Each structure stands twice: as C-alpha cells, then as structure tokens.
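So, can you check?
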Amino acid sequence: SSHDQSALVIMSLIPHRASSLSWTIFAAVCSAALGQRYTCTVTKGLGCFVDSATIRTLPIKVAVRDAQMTKEVCAALVAEEVGADTVQSVVLGVEFSNQCFYVHADTVPSNATKASPTDCSDPCDGNSTETCGGKYRVEAFQASCVGPPPPPNPGPLPTEGPCDILGAAGNPCVAAHSTVRALYKAYNGPLYNVTRPSGAWRTIGVLAPGGFANISEQDAFCGSPPDCVISNVFDQS
C-alpha cells in the first residue's frame, strides 16, 4: 500500500553465520564475483620434489582439499592472488591430489630434493587423467593465465535513486539498505561491512555519490576463495 510506510523500507540481505540461508545466498554472490576468472595453461613441468609438513618446498599455500584441483585450477587460484602477469614468473606445485602451493621464483628453490617422477603420480581430484603430485611429493610446474575481459560499461547512473523517486511521490523511505548501490543520488557514505573469520573487517562504500558498491575493495579484502560475511548494512536514510 502507498499509505503504509513499512512497505517503503528498501531491504537488503544481511548474511550472518547463524543463518544458513543468508550464508548460502552470500556465498553464491561471492562465487559469482570472485570465482575462477582465469583460464590457465601449463607451460613447463619442473619435476617432482620431496616435501614435508614443516618445511615446504613451495612455501605459499593456496588450497588444500580442493575437489576441483588440477594444475590449471592451481594456476588460476594463484593468478587470483598475484595476477595473470605475475603468475608466469612464479613456480607452482600440486600435491596430495588436491593441494596447491607456489613460490615467488623463476625456478625451484636450490635446496629442494628431487624425487622420482613416479612419486608424483597421484591423479588430480579435479581430473583423474592428470597427475597432482603425491604424498609429501610436490609436482612443480609453470603456467600462463589469461584473465577475463573487462566488464562492459554500465552506462550513466540514473539522475535519481529509488528513494529520491519515492520521496518525490510523497512516500519517503523510512530506511534504505543496499549491498549493491546508493539509494539516494547524493549518498556518498558506507554501504556495508565485510568481516573475516578472524574478526578483521572492512567498510565498503560507493564508487561515487549515488553510485554502485566498490566491489574491487571487497575482492581485495576477502581474498580468493572469498572468506567473508556481510556483518552489517548501513541505513542510507
């Protein structure tokens, strides 16, 4: 009803760990925004090397127990962290069928111990025709990746926000929450907070007054795969 102000509250999802439904929806949104966006190709195999749980041959861990793991998936995950250009100059490694590691170097560390190629014959969890190292055996390689094309220009922002339109019609918003955009053409404040399991948090605002959420800031803070929840949404009214 146009006379019922409660109907004019523009609501938005507020995910919380206690709510499985909201967490599922938020995870789906994050997957769309931060999913595997790179297409990668193995360019060079570097061999099989001894590894240990205490002293890693390739010290930077990207993923463990990833059911989709292949060498290409490992490279794509690293590209999410370092970028498509940088991934070409790092050494990557897969292990235990589903783990991914890397090191910022153009070759395997000189103190690494070579292992028999047959020690790195475990099938990848994501593709059984491909090998992904072995038990404490890391299969090192290099790869190149291509990122996604830039998104199309969304076009100019509307001259009025939803709450401006409602206000002009005599039905002002009594609350205005959105995780997507400003609901007033002049709004230039925070939209929502994202929080990591550690408790660290980041406020996500708009790109410009009346504009859309600064998703690139959320991407940089939440990492890949994303590990954040929206902990609160600000009332723009």
